[in-house]
């Protein structure tokens, strides 16, 4: 049974994802959505660029947020979106944090992984069977203003990628 799974995995890698360009994911914003004296909700905005000719259904995002080198949030979220061919889509990820929160200019680090479905039949079948699912990682370091609440980004925007 193991040899069958190994052969199927190798075939999936060799043939299932061949020719499919993985998306490029980057963090384009981190803002404060809500603030209480000892808690806050942050919005982390990801831009997903699909430069390939196939639409890529985005499955899940697993991500972690650090403020001032302290892990404050870990979570997963279903994206419920598709990166259309030759386009960009945005995903807004919430992160609730609590404790003693500093104010403006707080160092923030966001790291994670976006899982997506391959448009290739064999790769999609293997992912549905739980054998493998393609993914791409992202990482961001910057600062966030924890004193001023910003308007929350809404929805998923799509723009052409050139």
Listing every helix as H and every strand as E from the N terminus to the C terminus, the arrangement reads HEEEEEEHEE
Distance between the first and last residues' Cα = 46 Å
Shape: elongated
Overall number of domains: 1
Which spans of ≥5 residues are poorly predicted at pLDDT below 50? 3-17, 156-162
Topology readout:
Blueprint: H1 2-16, E1 24-36, E2 39-50, E3 56-67, E4 70-83, E5 87-98, E6 106-116, H2 121-128, E7 135-144, E8 158-160
Antiparallel strand pairs: 1-2, 2-5, 3-4, 3-6, 5-8, 6-7
Helix pairs in contact: 1-2
Based on the model shown, name its key terms.
elongated; four-stranded antiparallel sheet; 162 residues; mainly beta; disordered C terminus; Immunoglobulin-like
What does this entry look like structurally?
The protein has 162 residues and is mainly beta. The chain has one domain: Immunoglobulin-like (Sandwich). The protein is built from two helices and eight strands. It has helices at residues 2-16, 121-128; strands at residues 24-36, 39-50, 56-67, 70-83, 87-98, 106-116, 135-144, 158-160. The protein has a four-stranded antiparallel β-sheet with strand order 1-2-5-8, with no helix packed on it. A four-stranded antiparallel β-sheet has the order 4-3-6-7, with no helix packed on it. Strand 3 (56-67) and strand 4 form a beta hairpin. The longest helix is centred in the first third of the chain and has 15 residues, at 2-16. Mean pLDDT is 81; it is low at 3-17 and 156-162.
């Amino acid at each position: 049974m193991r040899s069958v799974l190994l052969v199927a995995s190798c075939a999936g890698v060799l043939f299932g994802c061949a020719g499919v360009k993985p998306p490029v994911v980057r963090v384009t914003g981190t803002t404060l959505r809500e603030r209480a004296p000892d808690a806050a909700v942050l919005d982390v905005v990801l831009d997903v660029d699909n430069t390939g000719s196939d639409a890529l259904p985005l499955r899940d995002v697993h991500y972690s947020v650090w403020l001032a080198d302290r892990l404050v949030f870990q979570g997963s979220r279903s994206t419920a979106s598709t990166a259309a061919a030759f386009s960009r889509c945005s995903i807004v990820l919430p992160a609730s944090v609590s404790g003693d929160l500093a104010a403006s200019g707080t160092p923030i680090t966001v790291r994670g992984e976006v899982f997506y479905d391959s448009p290739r039949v064999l790769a999609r079948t293997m992912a549905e069977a739980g054998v493998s699912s393609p993914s791409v990682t992202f990482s961001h370091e910057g600062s966030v203003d924890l004193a001023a609440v910003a308007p929350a980004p809404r929805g998923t925007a799509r723009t052409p990628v050139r």
